[in-house]
Amino acid sequence: MDEIKKIIDELGITTFEANMKIAGFAVVSDSGKVVFQTDNWDLNNQTNMILNVIKGDRSFVLNDVEFSVVETTTEGIVGTANNGMGHVIFTPFQGGVLVSFAMPRADPPRVLSFLKTFAMRLNGKV
């Protein structure tokens, strides 16, 4: 757990320095357990939704906001709020998924590419 927190802390600092416009992070295991999440986000009751998106759902509701999956690549999945309120980025890794909330003015493909580096560092740690 300490190693995961260290990776996410570094991710937060690097995100800020690179002006990626990401507001929250969570690490969810393949079994649906929230392993880590930033204080400004509570995904404990959202893990089934997260795993269903990874399995192919094309829409989801998070914190009463409806999202549609707009991009699926080998790097991850981008869900964009139907009301323009931001993006949820799912970046799978071996053992789980890094879930991030990007603000409305973020560049989702750039964010996804940026997050992939950190998700790879989480491989096998969950």
Strand and helix map with partners:
Elements: H1 2-17, E1 22-29, E2 34-37, H2 47-54, E3 59-62, E4 65-72, E5 77-81, E6 87-93, E7 96-102, H3 108-122
Antiparallel strand pairs: 1-2, 1-7, 3-4, 4-5, 5-6, 6-7
What does it look like?
It is a single chain. The chain has 126 residues and is of the alpha+beta class. 31% of the residues lie in helices and 34% in strands. The protein has three helices and seven strands. The protein has a seven-stranded antiparallel β-sheet, with helices on both faces. Helix 1 packs antiparallel against helix 3. The longest helix is centred in the first third of the chain and has 16 residues, at 2-17.
Which key terms come to mind for this protein?
31% helix, alpha+beta, 7-stranded antiparallel β-sheet, 126 residues
Q: Termini distance?
A: 8 Å
Helix content: 25-40%
Cα-based radius of gyration, to the nearest Å: 13 Å
What is the tally of helical segments? 3
Estimate the mean pLDDT confidence. Answer: 94
**Contiguous uncertain segments of 5+ residues:** none
Question: Which sheet architecture does the biggest sheet show?
Answer: 7 strands, antiparallel
Instruction: Using the alpha-carbon principal axes, give the shape.
Output: globular
The proportion of strand residues reads: 25-35%
Classify the secondary structure makeup into a structural class.
Answer: alpha+beta
The helix-strand sequence is HEEHEEEEEH
Strand order of the largest sheet: 2-1-7-6-5-4-3
Total DSSP E strands: 7
